[in-house]
UniProtKB/TrEMBL annotation:
PROSITE patterns: ATPASE_ALPHA_BETA (PS00152). Belongs to the ATPase alpha/beta chains family. Pfam families: ATP-synt_ab, ATP-synt_ab_N, ATP-synt_VA_C. This is V-type ATP synthase beta chain. It comes from the Bacteria. It comes from Eggerthia catenaformis OT 569 = DSM 20559. Residues 131-349 form the ATPase F1/V1/A1 complex alpha/beta subunit nucleotide-binding domain. GO terms for molecular function: ATP binding; proton-transporting ATP synthase activity, rotational mechanism; proton-transporting ATPase activity, rotational mechanism.
Length: 479
């Protein structure tokens, strides 16, 4: 027997309060029927004895305290799923908005997911190729990893997200690969940009999109990443696919959580965010991984904008504690016209060492990455010295490092939004750039690798270095 409650006790913004509710559950879905017969959806967000606080998805306009009828549905919010979700576009609450009608669902999944027993987790191995050299070579994305992108206001993180969706692939051609893309709190033009880009690239057949617009209810924004991750888990663990989940912008999501928390009268913590923001973000990020016995995997790239480029802001700060590294975008590189403007020195992929090398990428990958990091870090030291004494006073070796730094930014970091490099092309380019430097300056790789990959003349020819640079190199080689 289903009970129906007539009337409401209070209406406060998007929240309504219902008294004398029996056997209600947290996160349980409810249906509210208005006086004109129309229905709205909501979910229980707080329970105090027999008093239930309900968040109404479509807002509380025209709701009546006396005539509104409320029915508890007895289950949390669920997402209808089947293989038909591939190629479809949904709103933040999982309803189709592409004009193709409802999907034929084989089952419905709780959007909160099921907790994955740590004992049943498999350590992430192997990699996902993004076609972007700065990521693939230096902050490699490993299957089952959660690797956020830290961006800032005005930086091209949307373009980077589109490029990753268009180019991402796995080495195993016999296994399915899919991308779940979720946008939270975006404007209409950004939403249209995402849809148009994927459609023009002809990749929609393996993409699932969830779009939450800036004028949509905040409760829908809170549901969006959970719907996206539920779709990803279904494809990964029931259809053995490797799924890459990209969602932007996590900061918009956290601001929705803050607004929602404030509307409930909860005590705020740092910068007004609720004290449970850490566990809330963890409930999203920890849904990445590989389960024992499963052939598929869920990999996450959450994108967040740092207010005022402040990495100590609560959102990037808490994200850094939960995830396994970060890819940091740099405003100075962006101003130089470099795309993607990835600052490789503060960027990090903690699981990279276990998913690269022989059998995954190439045997020289780790040594090359170490040497590129060391060389580019020395470039920053030389730049600091140059600001004091001037470039003319630098040693010949330091001048070559400055040349390497410019070439590294122009040719390795800056590859444009349409260039898709294979892992071999990326690694070969890295060795060619290192060959600009004197061989004795490359102290992070052994002689065997240098004998195989170091080719100074090739670097000179490729980058069109000046003749006096070549002469000095030949003189040093003779000595």
């Amino acid at each position: 027997m289903t009970l129906q409650y007539v009337g409401l006790n209070d209406i406060n913004g998007s929240l309504v309060v219902l008294d004398h509710v029996k056997d209600a559950s947290y996160d349980e879905m409810v249906e509210l029927t208005l006086q004109d017969g129309s229905a709205r959806s909501g979910r229980i967000v707080e329970i105090d004895g027999e008093r239930a606080v309900i968040q109404v998805f479509e807002g509380t306009n025209t709701l009546s305290l006396k005539n509104t009828k409320t029915r508890l549905l007895g289950h949390p919010m669920e997402l209808p799923v089947s293989m038909e979700i591939l190629g479809r576009v949904f709103n933040g609450a999982g309803k189709p908005i592409d004009g193709l009608g409802d999907i034929y669902a084989t089952e419905s999944k709780d959007i909160n997911g099921l907790p994955l027993n740590p004992v049943s987790r498999v350590y992430p191995r192997n990699y996902i190729n993004t076609g972007i050299s700065s990521i693939d070579a230096l902050t490699t994305l490993i299957r089952g990893q959660k690797l956020p992108i830290f961006s800032g206001s005005g930086l091209p993180h949307n373009q980077l997200a589109v490029q990753i969706v268009k180019q991402a692939q796995i080495a195993d051609s016999d296994q399915g690969f899919a991308v779940v893309f979720a946008a939270m709190g975006v404007t209409h033009d950004v939403s249209n940009y995402f849809r148009k880009s994927f459609e023009e690239a002809g990749i929609m057949d393996h993409v699932v999109m969830f779009l939450n617009l800036a004028n949509d209810p905040i409760i829908e924004r809170i549901l969006t990443p959970r719907c996206a991750l539920t779709a990803a888990e279904y494809l990964a663990f029931q259809h053995d696919m490797h799924v890459l989940v990209i969602y932007t912008d996590v900061t918009s999501y956290c601001e929705a959580v803050r607004e929602f928390s404030s509307s409930k009268g909860e005590i705020p913590a740092r910068k007004g965010y609720p004290g449970y923001l850490y566990s809330d973000l963890a409930s999203l990020y920890e849904r990445a991984g590989i389960a024992k016995g499963a052939k598929g995997s869920v990999t996450q790239i959450p994108i967040l904008t740092m207010p005022n480029n402040d990495i100590t802001h609560p959102v990037p700060d808490l994200t850094g504690y939960i995830t396994e590294g970060q890819i940091t975008l740099d405003p100075e590189l962006s101003q130089l016209g470099i795309f993607p403007p990835v600052n490789v020195l503060p960027s990090l992929s903690r699981l990279m060492k276990d998913g690269i090398g022989e059998g995954y990428t190439r045997g020289d990958h780790q040594d090359l990455a170490n040497q590129l990091f060391a060389a580019y870090a020395h470039v920053q030291d030389v730049k600091a010295l140059t600001s004091v004494i001037g470039e003319d006073e630098l040693s010949e070796t330091d001048k070559k490092f400055m040349t390497f730094g410019r070439l590294f930014e122009q040719h390795f970091l800056n590859q444009g939004s349409d260039t898709n490099r294979s892992i071999n092309e990326t690694l070969d380019l890295g060795w060619t750039l290192l060959s600009v430097l004197p061989r004795n300056a490359l102290d992070r790789v052994d002689d065997q690798l240098l004998d195989q990959y170091y080719d100074h003349q090739k670097a000179v020819n490729l980058f069109g270095l000046k003749e006096d640079f070549v002469i000095r190199e030949l003189q040093e080689a003779v000595k």
